[in-house]
Amino acid sequence: MHKNHIVFIVMDSCRYDSFLAAKTPNIDRIGEAEKRYSYASWTAPSHYAFTMGMMPHSSPTNVFASEVYKEEFLQWKTRIGSEDVSFKDFIPEISLPKVLKNFGYHTVAKVSMPVLNKHTLISQHFDEYKLMSHHNDFSGMVSEIEFPDDTPCYYFLNLGETHYPYMLSGDNLPHVSGVHGVLKDIGKDAVDNKPEQDQSFSMEQMKMLHKQQITCVEYVDGYIGKLMEKAPSNTYFIVTADHGELFGEDGYFGHGPIMHEKCFEIPFVEGFAK
Fold first, then answer.
1. For the chain, which domains are there?
2. Among 230, 273, 209, 198, which residue's Cα sits nearest to residue 14?
């Protein structure tokens, strides 16, 4: 049986309501987006779950977690296009790239966030793994992607366009430490004489940033359309996010060490483009 190409797109930090507010005619060709929940509120652990073959969860009630996980792994039958896939194929490594390689796939990862660089465990079992030179380079990823006739390909793409500062220059924005944003006002207990302090956002800036994330989703959708033009009809698309984002709700901004529903609510859509 001819196996499907698979393109797995992760819009970094894209929360569910940002996606809903955006115009996404190309992603809509895949299917209707569901509200799902990330296993983590930060990029690295969330992507580790993806490399295990696990998708964002739907939070079902009255079920055993083990049965949910087993059913999730079996969904790869549809994604790959083979009834030969079984749960035992993932044991013991629980590595999706390794499973796909065993099924004859050429596995490629292109990532935007430095925390996902090729020296991390997430890079294991990929044939190719590249940290893009700029975190807003989905267009570069699309230009590099090819779909050979004789080899099924798995492309795992982490997009930085939907991550702070949302394709803005940042020159007029407060400084935010680290790679994932911080709890608002975390710098208030900083050591004296620190050369650079984290700053707070005004609510007007928060609203502007949320609106800009929506704009970035629409930008990403345009390039997904260009990727669909290159992809054969047997290309299975997965489009989701690794976690959500806070834009001032309850005094929070960003994601990471935050327990808030907006940090976990994300879009999920999968299927063949119609």
1. 5-272 (3.40.720.10)
2. 209
- Adjacent-strand bridge partners of 185: none
Confidence of residue 187 (pLDDT cuts 50, 70, 90): very low
- β-bridge partners, 217: none
Segment 103-122, tens digit of pLDDT: 999 999 999 999 999 999 99
Q: Are 239 and 155 in contact (CB under 8 A)?
A: no
What pLDDT is recorded for position 227?
98
Cβ(54)–Cβ(34) below 8 Å: no
Phi, psi of 164 (to 5 degrees): -50, 135
CA dist 272 and 31 (Å) reads 8
Residues contacting 5, CB < 8 A, separation 6+ = 147, 152, 153, 154, 155, 231, 232, 234, 235, 236
**Integer Cα distance of 161 and 39 in angstroms:** 21
Buried/exposed 106-124: b ≥16 CB within 10 Å, e otherwise: bbbbbbbbebbeeebebbe
